[in-house]
Amino acid sequence: MTIWNEISPTPFRVEYADAAGVPTRTLRAGDPTAQAVVFLHGTSGHLEAFARNISAHAAYDLHAVDMLGHGYTGKPDKPYEIADYVTHLVDYLDAVGVGAAHIVGESLGGWVGARAAVEHPERVLSLQLLCAGGTVANPTVMDRIRTSTRKAVTSDDIELTRKRMRLLMADDADATEELVAARHAIYHTPEFVAGVDNLLSLQEIERRQRNLLRPEELGRITQPTLVVWGRQNPFGETPEATAMHEAIPGSRLELFENCGHWPQHEQAERFNALSLEFIAKAAG
After folding, report:
1. How far is CA 273 from CA 42, 171, 278, in A?
2. Which 3 state secondary structure label does DSSP give 123?
3. Which of 81, 155, 194, 248 is the most buried (most CB within 10 A)?
4. Are 70 and 46 in contact (CB under 8 A)?
């Protein structure tokens, strides 16, 4: 079973949208007349993180996006802060004619989605925060992300990419060799190598602190919100999820056992059912 077997037989296309001058790789699938669902990946990730979720969500107008500076999307030469990612997200929605979308954000993608929900509430129909970052600044975790990513990018040794992918998962088997190969290829494009420190800039304590989602900011989120967390998440303890849930009015918290940082991938069947039920309810 490959990534593309998992997506097929759902009709899809991979294309580039011009998001205010930033060429943005996107996988499009589903019903263009339905409400939009946008998948946003984590730090140093790419749209393939949602390969196991595309077909399940094909009743919607589906967009899996390589975020600013990530994957094969354009890489402006500056350190990226959350405001930059939010601007890129809104520019992408404008470029493809989507007024508002259900945002499904994993890790960094959840951080961006939450900030977008606060600053552009009219563009966010509902919010899913999957092991979302952005509420704490833990130097140990930040160093783990920065060090493991830079090692994998600056060395041709694919084993370092494999270790970086396995770090995300509770079970090494979920870091499939195809995912490893896809990420290794992205990590070693000249553009990615040149810009890796820009996308790791939020692992610097001062920059991260000024970008954090504070409880009062989370309290301003009015959209239906689902928080999903893996109990074996290597980048955040379960109390982070609980605090996020308690800060967001009316939110729902789901904890996945035997799960790391990619609940949408590691436990795709459970996640897809949960996500579809949540979106359907949010959509009325």
Report:
1. 22, 21, 9
2. helix
3. 248
4. yes
Residue position matching structure tokens 């930040």: 142
Q: Which amino acid is at 248?
A: I
End-to-end CA, the chain? 35
For residues 130-157, give the mean pLDDT: 96
Residue (of 104, 118, 92) closest to 57 by Cα position:
104
C-alpha distances out from residue 202 to 82, 83, 85, 183, Å: 8, 12, 12, 20
Is residue 256 a contact partner of residue 231, using CB atoms and an 8 Å limit? yes
Inform me whether the pLDDT recorded for 97 exceeds 80: yes
Cβ atoms of 74 and 205 closer than 8 Å: no
CATH number for the domain running over 3-141+200-283: 3.40.50.1820
From the number of C-beta atoms within 10 Å of its C-beta (0-12, 13-18, 19+), residue 49 rates as buried
Cα 149 to chain centroid distance, Å, stands at 16
Task: Say if CB 77 and CB 195 are below 8 A apart.
Answer: yes
CA 164 to chain centre: 16
Residue 174 pLDDT grade (very low, low, confident, very high; cuts 50, 70, 90): very high
Six-digit token string for 136: 């704490």
Instruction: Take residue 166 and report the two structure tokens written for it.
Output: 């396995």
> Tokens 């961006």, residue?
112
